[in-house]
Amino acid sequence: MRFTSERHLADDILEREFTLGDIPGVLWTPAPAARPAPLILLGHPGGLRGMYPRLADRARHAAAEGYASATLELPGAGDRPRDAAADRARADLRRALAAGEPVTDDIVDRLVLPLVDRAVPEWRAALDALLDLPGIDGPVGYSGGVISIGVRLAAVEPRVKAAVLFAGSFVPRAVVEEARKVTVPLLVLLQWDDEHNDRGMALDLFDALGSPEKTLHANTGGHTGVPRFEADDANRFFARHLT
Amino acid sequence: MRFTSERHLADDILEREFTLGDIPGVLWTPAPAARPAPLILLGHPGGLRGMYPRLADRARHAAAEGYASATLELPGAGDRPRDAAADRARADLRRALAAGEPVTDDIVDRLVLPLVDRAVPEWRAALDALLDLPGIDGPVGYSGGVISIGVRLAAVEPRVKAAVLFAGSFVPRAVVEEARKVTVPLLVLLQWDDEHNDRGMALDLFDALGSPEKTLHANTGGHTGVPRFEADDANRFFARHLT
Q1: CB contact (8 A) between residue B227 and residue A215
Q2: Residue ranges per domain, chain B?
Q3: Tens of pLDDT along A45-95?
Q4: For a pLDDT cut of 90, what percent of chain B falls above it?
Q5: What kind of architecture, by CATH, is found in domain A2-80+115-242?
Q6: Which of A41, A178, A187, B29 is the most exposed place for a label (fewest CB within 10 A)?
Q7: Regarding the domain delimited by B2-79+116-242, which CATH topology (the fold level of the hierarchy) does it fall under?
Q8: How do beta strands A13-20 and A23-29 pair?
C-alpha cells in the first residue's frame, strides 16, 4: 500500500489516496484519539471519482463517531482495465431492461459473479494493509455498495464483524446460497420503489441471510433516495456492534 | 375524563389512571417543562392490566424525551364488557390456527372490524379530553397495538401527525384500502418470524399505506421479540415529526 496524496478535511479528518498494487483507494481517518479507530469499509457501485462526494460524506459521518473509513476501486471500474465479458453482460442487462424483458439468471451471473470473485480478495488484501497502519484497528464493518460483494465478504472474512448492506442490485442465485452462511449482525437497506431492483428478490435475500441478528430498513423512494437519517441509523448500528 | 389515582414514578414522571365514561385509561406525563408535552397514544392488543409493565416501560422511554403518553382499554378487553360476536370470531381464529387451516377474510373481518369501529371513536374522544389538560398539547403521535386501529386513526384523525405501527395482527381487506388514505409519516415494525402474523400480508399492507414518507423496520425474531433499540428508533422518529 502506497499513499499518493493526503489532505486535511474539516473536523481534523485526514484523507489519503493510496494504491494497493495497481488498485486505487482512499482512506479517511478521524482526529487521532487515545484508542485506535475501528475501520468501516465503504462499498460503492464502482467509479471512485464519480462516487467521491457521496463516499466522502459517508466517511465524514463515520469519522464524527470515531471510525476510520476506506474504499477501493472495483475491478473493471474507474481507471482500472475494463473487463470485456463484464461489459458484454452489462450491455445485455441494459438491453433486457430497455426492452422490458426479464433479466435472466445467466446475465446476472455473468455480470456479478466475476466481479465478486475478483473484488473480495482485493478488499481482504486491503484489510491486511489497512489494519497494519498506526491508529487503525479492528473490529471492521462493511457498508453499502454491490450487495453480493458485501454478502461474500461477510461470509468469508472473519475480521468483518457487522455489515450494512444496500439491497440495490441484482444478486446471483449462488450468492443467495452464500448468504445463508453469514452470521454477523446485519442492517439491510432497501429502497421500496427502487427502479433498479426487484423488491421480491431483495426480500428473499434478506430472508436467506443466516445472521441471527438482522434488521431490514425499507424506505419509500427510488434507488438514490435513501433518507439522510439512515446514515445516523447506520452509525448507531455500528456503535452497537463495533465498539 | 375523571382521574382515579395518581402516583409518581422515577424521573419525576406522573402516572394517573383515569376513566373516560366507563373506559379505563392511563396517562403518563414527564416532569413539567417550559413547553407543553407532545402526546403519544400507546396502542396495545387489549388488557391494560397484563400489558401494564410494557406500556409503563414505553411511557418512561417516551417521557425521557419529553413526551406525555396515554392509553385506553380496548372494547371487550380487560374489565370492559365482553363482546360475544368478537369472542366467537376469536374462537374461530384459534380453531383455524390450531388446525393449520387458512384464516379466512370472514374471520378477520368479524374479529377486527367491530373492534376498530368502536375503538377509534373512543381514542378520538380521549384525545379531546387529554389535549384539554394543562401541560399537554399536540402534535400527537400514535404507537403500536392493533395495526388496524392505528391505520384507521391515522387516516381519519388529523391531530395524529405521525405513527409507529406494529405489523403483528390480521388486517381486514377494508383496512388495507383505508391504508391508501393515510398520509402522515409512518414507521412500521415487523417481526420477520412472527408466529401470529402473515409476513406477505404485512408487506402488502406496508405497500398499500399512502404516506409519502414511510419506513419499515423488520427484525428477526418472533411476535414479542422486538429488539430494545427499536424503542430508541421510535423516539427518534417522533422527534423528527412531532417537534
Answers
A1: yes
A2: 2-79+116-242
A3: 999 999 999 999 999 999 999 999 999 999 999 999 999 999 999 999 999
A4: 86
A5: 3-Layer(aba) Sandwich (3.40)
A6: A178
A7: Rossmann fold (3.40.50)
A8: antiparallel
Interchain pair B217, A216: CB under 8 A: yes
- Residue identified by cell 470473485 is A117
Best of A187, A198, A215 to mutate (most B CBs within 10 Å, chain B): A215
ipTM for the whole complex: 0.87
Residues of B in contact with A192 (CB under 8 A): 206-207, 214, 216
- B217/A219 touch (CB, cutoff 8 Å), yes or no: no
pLDDT digits (tens, 9 = 90+) for A142-182: 998 899 999 999 999 999 999 999 997 789 999 999 999 99
3 state SS for B31-82: CCCCCCEEEEEEECCCCHHHHHHHHHHHHHHHHCCCCEEEEECCCCCCCCCC
**Chain-chain contact of B236 with A215 (C-beta, under 8 angstroms):** no
Q: Facing residues of A38 across strands?
A: A137
Question: How many whole angstroms separate alpha carbon B138 and alpha carbon B159?
Answer: 7
